[in-house]
Design goal:
binds zinc ion, 144 residues, 0% helix, single chain, mainly beta
Length: 144
């Protein structure tokens, strides 16, 4: 009997195999602290028992949004870190609340939001995408 090298214990948190999850469109208003906004939302990964991953990924697609202040995303907090990636091939502005700070961010940009920091993100104008990567396999949020 040949001996095999010791394998690390497979972790449910970190798959040791490649995983492909197909995205599907779903309404933003179905998520806590969110209402439907001027966007299409795609759940790209997460909350799927068939492909348990340590991340939850959602993509917000904006098309020619007229300038304005919006509140479809209410301030909320997570018990895990979140990363937002803003990308555009033309122009995209997103109003962010990060703690007590209100900032307008021009794409392309990446925003790191540590666990426990109250935050919200609402498109101001333009077109492009916001990719939200939550470092948790499930979406959980609470009021600040
Ligand atoms: Zn969030």
């Amino acid at each position: 009997m040949s001996s095999r090298p010791e394998m690390a214990t497979p972790s449910l948190d970190r798959p040791r195999r490649a995983v492909i999850v197909r995205g599907h469109e779903e309404p933003l208003g179905a998520m806590p602290f969110h209402a439907d906004g001027p966007l299409r939302r795609w759940r790209m990964a997460g909350g799927d028992a068939q492909a348990a991953l340590p991340v939850f990924v959602a993509l917000h697609e904006f098309a020619s949004v007229e300038a304005g202040r919006r509140t479809y995303c209410e301030p909320h907090v997570h018990d895990f870190d979140e990363i937002n990636v803003l990308y555009t091939s033309s122009s995209l502005q997103v109003d962010l609340r990060l703690g007590d700070e209100l900032v307008t961010v021009d794409a392309p940009a990446t925003i790191y939001i540590p666990a426990g920091l109250p935050h919200s993100a609402n498109v101001r104008s333009g077109e492009g995408v916001l990719v939200a990567v939550l470092l948790s396999g499930e979406y959980r949020a609470s009021a600040p």
